[in-house]
Design goal:
Blueprint lengths: L5 E3 L5 H12 L6 E3 L13 E8 L2 E2 L8 H6 L5 E10 L5 E2 L11 E6 L7 E2 L4 E2 L5 E5 L8 E2 L5 E9 L1
Antiparallel strand pairs: 1-10, 2-3, 3-4, 3-5, 5-12, 6-11, 7-10, 7-12, 8-9
């Protein structure tokens, strides 16, 4: 049974959200190519770009400091991983394959950096991206993203934590 999916709009103060958004939209922000989205078996047209903020017990990004207040607001006691995802808009919307982030029980949330029609699917719920929307969910349960068709890009930050 799906655990509660909780949506909070305008999660961060406007200035704080804009600082994150502007940094990640910058032409100097480092995005790295990933030839898959959900699985190594993804078709060749399934690809994305990512930015690792935190992994393997340490910050991996100079922009990690921008997330401090958000981590406090979600009552984060320990970080598993934080990563940004960028999917380029396509001419046709496409839901990606369902996946889990990690098999063990932990907490998760997604911060949407822009509005678009690339919803996030959970077992019984779908959430539309909206600027400064945060959605809490169980990342050990299946979920998937959707490639948008009404914007140039879909950008999110995924938090896996305790």
């Amino acid at each position: 049974m799906e655990r509660l999916v909780k949506i909070v709009d305008n999660f961060l103060p406007k200035e704080e959200f804009l600082a994150i958004q502007q940094r990640m939209y910058s032409d100097s922000f480092p995005w790295y190519y990933n030839d898959r989205i959900s699985s190594p078996k993804d078709p060749k047209e399934y690809f994305s770009f990512f930015h690792t903020f935190y992994a393997n017990h340490e910050p991996r990004s100079k922009a990690f400091y921008l997330l401090g207040n958000l981590l406090n607001k979600i009552n984060c006691k320990g970080i598993v991983r934080i990563k940004g995802n960028l999917q380029l808009g396509q001419s046709k919307k496409r839901q990606n394959k369902m996946h889990i982030d990690y098999k063990f029980k932990h907490k998760g949330c997604i911060l949407y950096l822009n509005a678009n029609n690339g919803e996030t699917h959970f077992k019984t719920t779908k959430v539309m991206p909206k600027e400064n929307r945060l959605v809490f969910f169980d990342p050990s349960e299946e979920h998937s993203s959707t490639v948008c068709s009404d914007a140039k890009r879909r950008i999110t930050i995924i938090f896996n934590y305790f």
